[in-house]
Amino acid sequence: MKALAGYVAGLLFGLGLAISGMTDPARVLGFLDLAGAWDPTLMFVLGGAVATTFVGYRLAWARGKPLFEASFQLPTRRDLDARLLGGAALFGIGWGLSGYCPGPAVASIAGLSWPLAAMLAAMAAGWYLARKIA
Predict the structure, then answer these.
(1) Which of 39, 83, 109, 114 is the most buried (most CB within 10 A)?
(2) Nearest 10 degrees: Cα torsion 25, 105, 92, 121
(3) Residues 6 or more apart from 24 whose CB is under 8 A from it?
(4) Is the full-model pTM beyond 0.85?
């Protein structure tokens, strides 16, 4: 049942990305281009995500425990270190250069292009290097 719930959640996430236009790197880059032809449509996607998360967390906490686990698994570290800040910076730079973040990139695999393949290869190389360095 836990695997089915994960599949359904992933499917809904992917559909949401596709329907909202987050899988279109031109739309994402247009949103990030504040000085040029700015495309504000993704602001509504981000606002919807924040509102959904706000409501969803309150509903989840009201249950007291997850549906398919004994307890919530929450991060315990709260400090900011160089690895976290460096990783966040690399993520932002990669997203800004390519127009893809990991979720939309994976959701876009069906329409694989050379820029998408390059981004996915760079993402896989980053994962590999992060595991080797850690």
Answers:
(1) 39
(2) -120
(3) 99
(4) no
Residue count of the chain: 134
Containing structural domain, residue 13 = 2-133
Domains contained in the chain, number: 1
Q: pLDDT tens, 111-124?
A: 888 888 888 898 89
Calpha distance 117→95 (Å, rounded): 14
* 103 token code pair: 């979720």
Distance CA 46, CA 23 (A): 14
**DSSP H helical segments within the chain, as ranges?**
2-20, 25-32, 41-63, 82-98, 102-107, 114-133
Q: How far apart are CA 96 and CA 99, in angstroms?
A: 6
